[in-house]
TrEMBL record:
It comes from the Bacteria. This is 3-oxoacyl-[acyl-carrier-protein] synthase 1. Its EC number is 2.3.1.41. Homodimer. CDD domains: KAS_I_II. It is found in: Cytoplasm. The keyword Acyltransferase applies. It comes from Croceitalea dokdonensis DOKDO 023. Pfam families: ketoacyl-synt, Ketoacyl-synt_C. Belongs to the thiolase-like superfamily. Beta-ketoacyl-ACP synthases family. Its main location: cytoplasm.
Length: 423
């Protein structure tokens, strides 16, 4: 069976818009969650969020002059930055102008793409100015716009597609690309996901009253995964991207290898049992974790660390419980576990990919990044695992195998197993 390795990483996140700044923020526990004046003006209860600051990024590096005309899609911009950075990080160049690269493809997911472009278009149409919409309205607002932009910019001739599975999207895209390479249908796949910024994306969650409303003056303290004082998830946005490649191709190119994808699993709880549109079916979560381990040929006791979904809500304790049941491990024997929601908020469709990038960085650096705002671990969690399993500061530690999972609205799940590359 074809081995699949990671040869490139890219990120555009609330606390770092390139790999170096992102890594330093994760190590130091720096949050990218900020007060958003626009949300106060619009009378949101939660007036904080995490969004990438890209004002100093030269978009000429990522878009042609023609592509920049009428560009009004934050998720598309984030995805193009992360995706192209990952491709360059892997030592890859765009295909020649004459012929696509038949061996390389892209699976890049999103939730809502181009919501601000939609709003702009609706106003023009309502004002009878349809002809002034511009030629880019469709491609900036179709869900597959991000994969189409990346595929065309890089000249990718294999599968070019977009997936969408709520908060599971980014992790699912990685597993989809992994399976395509493992089956021999591609040599390289650019995988990842992106999410738009702004009130038209975040408003629905504010209306559901699942966002924290008491931290508007203290934004960096608001997202508190696994904490007794967790008050809801903080919305975020951005993009993460990884280049997956067959080991044979990577060695042939002399490419850097940052880790190996050992296996993964995707499933749904069918909104049965304790599952619903907004809550996970615990049995399905446990089944997904077990199937990922089986696919990877790894036992639960071999996991050195876990990067959970852990959104800083009341469901965090249930997630840890599901991990203990799926692995059959609890107490002091439980792996180290962390969440990056305290650093960047919950980046929705981009969450899985941004967190996959961070998880691979942990593996490559042999370091577990600390949990932010987790000084008061929830007592229900402490009844399951020891406090030492939840690091609050980053620390170097031997890491061979890490699990990363995402669970999304619609009762959908994805879990991937990464390992250190060994020849």
């Amino acid at each position: 069976m074809t081995r699949v390795v990671i040869t490139g990483l890219g990120v555009c996140s609330p606390n770092g818009t390139n790999l170096e700044s992102f890594e330093q923020a994760l190590i130091s526990g720096t949050s990218g969650i900020r007060f958003q004046p626009q949300l106060r003006k619009l009378k949101f209860s939660c007036q904080i969020a995490g969004n990438p600051h890209i004002e100093n990024i030269n978009l000429n590096t990522y878009f042609t002059k023609v592509q920049q005309r009428g560009l009004n899609s934050s998720g598309l911009v984030y995805g193009m930055i992360a995706g192209q950075d990952a491709w360059r990080h892997a030592g890859m160049l765009p295909a020649s102008a004459e012929k696509p690269d038949w061996d390389s493809g892209v699976v890049f997911g999103t939730g809502i793409l181009g919501v601000d472009k939609f709003r702009e278009a609706i106003h023009r149409i309502d004002e009878g100015e349809t002809r002034r919409l511009g030629s880019s309205s469709v491609i900036q607002t179709m869900a597959s716009g991000i994969s189409a932009y990346l595929g065309g910019t890089l000249g990718l001739g294999n599968q070019v597609t977009t997936n969408s599975s709520a908060c599971t999207t980014g992790t699912e895209s990685l597993i989809m690309g992994f399976e395509r390479i493992r089956s021999g249908r591609a040599k390289r796949m650019l995988v990842g996901s992106c999410s738009d910024s702004g009130p038209y994306v975040w408003g629905g969650f504010d209306a559901m009253r699942i966002l924290p409303s008491t931290y508007n003056e203290r934004p960096t303290e608001a997202s508190r995964p696994m904490s007794a004082s967790a008050a809801g998830f903080v919305p975020g946005s951005g993009a993460g991207a990884l280049v997956l490649e067959s080991l044979e191709s990577a060695l042939e190119r002399g490419a850097p290898i940052y880790g190996e994808v050992k296996g993964g699993a995707i499933n749904s709880g069918g909104q049965r049992g304790d599952g619903s549109m907004t809550a996970p079916n615990s049995e399905a979560v446990q089944h997904c974790i077990r199937m990922a381990l089986k696919d990877a040929g790894v036992s639960g006791t071999e996991l050195d660390a876990i990067n959970g979904h852990l959104t800083a809500t009341t469901k965090d304790s249930l997630e840890v419980l599901n991990w203990t049941k799926a692995l059959g491990i609890a107490g002091s024997d439980f792996p180290l576990i962390n969440s990056f929601k305290g650093h960047v908020g919950h980046c929705l469709a981009a969450a899985g990919s941004i967190e996959c990038v961070a998880t691979v960085m942990q593996l490559y650096r042999q370091m577990v990044f600390g949990n932010v705002n987790c000084g008061d671990i929830h007592p229900e969690i402490l009844s399951l695992i020891d406090a030492e399993c939840i690091p609050t500061k980053s620390r170097e530690t031997p890491l061979q195998t890490i699990a990363k999972a995402s669970f999304g609205f619609g009762d959908v799940n994805a879990c991937v197993i990464f390992s250190q590359y060994i020849a």
